[in-house]
Design brief:
The chain has 12 helices and 20 strands. The radius of gyration is 23 Å and the shape is globular. The relative contact order is 0.16. It binds ligand LLP. Ligand LLP binds next to helix 10 and helix 11. The site of ligand LLP has 21 residues, from helix 10 and helix 11.
């Protein structure tokens, strides 16, 4: 592959500098379209909610809006970006286990459509702020179904001791929160939400989740009188990082979920009128590439290092989750792979290794190394460690690139310092 979005990779690197995050815009569009096209049912309303934590910026949010999707935001900052992007905030879902009182106020001021309540104290805070005003908000409750999909332990979010959500086993708390919202005129308690992990390859995990969630909604209605009509199943759909990964195709996972929902709904008298999923990674990961310039090459007794001009500051995932990536050298795609390299970043940290071991053609100083599948949780988890400036981000489509986030300058880096 010599091009991204129809534009030559070396030309991209020369025009915008490195490190650079380049998205193939048509691939982003294809993913959004694929989810919205396949996540459909004849009997239940469906919505795709883009989990913007995977990559949140104004240009991305505008694309999401173009495809009619809803948006998951998890902080005041993500919400602010959506608001500034002109996103219809009534289509945002505000998540998070510790939304501050200020963030809740901001959500009400911006007209956030749905708040996903994560715990009892947050429910109390929302009611304290909204009661007696002329504001209205839909409420979903994040429940913890105790399903563990097989993912890295930091990414798993639904085991019983998770910091997220109220356990389904904690019936007293569920009943208490239901009572709170039933007694408040300004909240419409419509749905329950769960998210069972990330980078999930097993579609059965989702059908299990559907069964549990629909049955739980029915139980809440029967025993607590809560009129739960929506179920949000969270995200977690896997992306392809290396040839070892076999993610479930979007159409297949959507079909699986939709049929499970229709079946479960018929057994609870069609109580559920709306189902939602919240993909983040699976929409943006594979469309993103990180471009680095190779600096020095270093040989040790057991390794051959190629150093690049970025690292854990623009992609923490290898260091944090031992995540594996594939890469290639631009312009040398067809050359024989003659050596095994370790790709190391430039941060002052031994753990700053982007790829432990990869076969490549001979790598030379000045080559452009392209890491694939970096579009999710790369830029969004970037840091200023070692005071490295954040890379620029471009969207490339039909041979044309547009810069959607500027490269940080040293001036930006110190702009808040007194
Ligand atoms: N909805 C909720 C409530 C979530 O907590 C998440 C992710 C998603 C949706 C989207 O999940 P996705 O489709 O992207 O897997 N930083 C980690 C991933 C953390 C995911 C946290 N929650 C990583 O780089 O792998």
């Amino acid at each position: 592959m010599t091009e991204i979005g129809g534009m030559n990779i070396r030309e991209l690197a020369e025009t915008y500098g490195t490190p650079l995050v380049a998205y193939d815009e048509n691939m982003l569009r294809d993913k959004l379209e694929s989810f919205t096209k396949h996540f459909r049912s004849d009997t239940i309303r469906t919505d795709v909610v883009y989990a913007s934590k995977a990559f949140n910026c104004k240009a991305m949010i505008s694309l999401v809006s173009e495809y009619g999707c809803c948006l998951d935001v998890v902080s005041g900052g993500e919400l602010y970006t959506a608001w500034k992007a002109g996103f219809d905030c009534s289509k945002t879902f505000f998540h998070g286990n510790n939304k501050t009182p200020d963030e809740i106020r901001m959500a009400l001021d911006c007209g956030v459509g749905t708040i996903v309540i994560d715990n009892v104290m947050e429910a109390q805070e929302l009611i304290r702020q909204i009661e007696g005003t002329d504001r209205q908000i839909r409420v979903f409750l994040r429940v913890n179904p105790g399903i563990e999909a097989h993912t890295h332990q930091y990414i798993v979010t639904a085991h019983v001791d998770s910091k997220f959500g109220i356990s389904m086993l904690d019936w007293d708390e569920i009943a208490y929160v239901t009572d709170l919202f039933e007694g408040c005129d300004n909240t419409a308690f419509e749905g329950i939400h769960a998210h069972i992990g990330s980078q999930i390859f097993d579609k059965q995990a989702y059908s299990e989740l559907v069964k549990k969630m629909f049955a739980f909604a029915a139980k809440m209605k029967d025993e607590l009188g809560a009129d739960i009509t929506s179920v949000n199943l969270g995200g977690g759909f896997a992306a392809l990082y290396t040839s070892k990964d076999h993610p479930i195709p979007v159409d297949e996972v959507c079909d699986e979920i939709i049929s499970a929902c229709e079946e479960a709904n018929s057994s609870i008298h069609n109580q559920i009128r709306r189902v939602l999923i919240e993909p983040g990674r699976s929409i943006v990961a594979e469309a993103g590439y990180n471009l680095y310039k190779v600096g020095y090459i270093k040989k040790t007794p057991n390794k051959l290092y190629a150093f690049v001009d970025g690292g854990m500051s623009d992609n923490i995932r290898p260091a944090l989750y031992q995540a594996e990536y594939d890469a290639f050298i631009a312009g040398k795609e067809d050359e024989e792979k003659t050596a095994t390299y370790t790709i190391a970043g430039k941060c002052c940290e031994s753990g700053d290794i982007l790829i432990q071991s990869i076969a490549l053609p001979q790598v030379n100083t000045g080559d452009i190394l392209v890491m694939k599948t970096t579009g999710a949780y790369g830029y969004s988890m970037a840091s200023h460690y070692n005071k490295l400036a954040l890379p620029a981000v471009v969207f490339v489509k039909d041979g044309q690139a547009r810069e959607v986030i500027e490269r940080e300058s040293y001036e930006h880096l110190i702009s808040l310092e007194k």
